[in-house]
Design brief:
Elements (H helix, E strand, L loop, with lengths): L3 H9 L4 H20 L8 H30 L7 H24 L2 H10 L1 H18 L3 H7 L1 H7 L3 H15 L5 H28 L11
Helix pairs in contact: 2-3, 2-4, 3-4, 3-9, 3-10, 4-6, 5-6, 6-9, 7-8, 9-10
Amino acid sequence: MNIVRPINVALCNIPPWIIYIVGGAWAGWLFWQGLMGLGRFAVEPINVLERDYGEIALQLLVVGLVATPLRRWTGISIIRFRRAIGVTAFFFVLAHFLVFAILDIQNLGRVWTEIVKRPYVTVGMASFLLLIPLVMTSNDAMVRRMGAASWRRLHKLTYPAAVLGGVHYLWLVRGFPFEPLVYLAVIGVLLVARSKAKRKSSEKQQPTTKQQPSEG
């Protein structure tokens, strides 16, 4: 039984804006738990909240990268959700940064010092900055204004942003960083798969010239 078609039909009935609502509600629920010191937020609520926001952002970036390979390999398409996933990922990155700057460091001068002095913060900030032009152009008006080709080239910044986010997470984890390594491995596999698919596509598009028989 082919289950791809019913899955795609079901996905088509889900509006992409649901992702914004779910993401905002989840971010608010985590913040409320941190504010009230509930469960695992009881000991270091700011640190836990900061980590949670950052990890969710990285997960969403990976899901966004999975969209094209998932359609190519299985036929299941979540392409229509990719913009909402990317914008929601940026929202969590922004929340991660604000918790770090306002609740953790609590001093703008120290925030700049941390960015300059600590490599893992520098890498995380670089990932954040790469996402800003992407979220600013994640609308139909900017696609029309820039042109589809230029827009697609700009949004390839998602790939280095995801890699830098994975490296940022790797440097944060003490001991054996199993989970960050899994994220980096998945990102690496997706990027390699995309590179191979693009190379095969380019080879198919190249015109083939038939060898002419020699005279004489």
